[in-house]
Design goal:
By secondary structure, this protein is of the alpha+beta class. It is built from six helices and six strands.
Length: about 190
Amino acid sequence: MSSFLNGRAVWLAAFGAAVLVLTGCASNTRVEPPAPVENRLTAAAGTTATVAPNANASATTGQAAQSTVTPIDVTRNDAAANAAGRVVYFDFDSYVVKDEFRGVVEGNARRLSADRKRRVLIEGHTDERGGREYNLALGQRRAEAVLKSLTLLGVQDSQTEAVSFGKEKPAVAGSNEAAWAKNRRAELKDR
């Protein structure tokens, strides 16, 4: 009986040590909820709703916010679309695609919709401020925000991939607001 108790004590000690090791590996990285997404299911009825994550209360009560998204013709292939930029810049500590970069996203969506074999890699980047883990997560959210915008404009999931480089590949060297603003970006690169 004493060997059974000794075996159980050893097992409990090993389990306790494993719990301590795993607890020590826990990260304090702040995880933010995903960006709001437009619900296109009601578009056929003439209304669209913007659904925020964890907004189940308004969704279940039938209340829907009017969307300010303007539909575009993604089949149009003009020179402006081909000359569209490939970089979307973000505000500090944000992953919201600003209205001023809607043309960049729309132009790339038209280009990708016109050639379904074309693929792009969306690279998310941050400025040098903040920790490595936080910046990798923020860069990923930025890349995914652009990817989601392209998807909402009709680009197939198989044509896009989002990846984060965090603060590892700055576009501009420097530790001032001008340099940081150029480093907070998502780049669309052909694959």
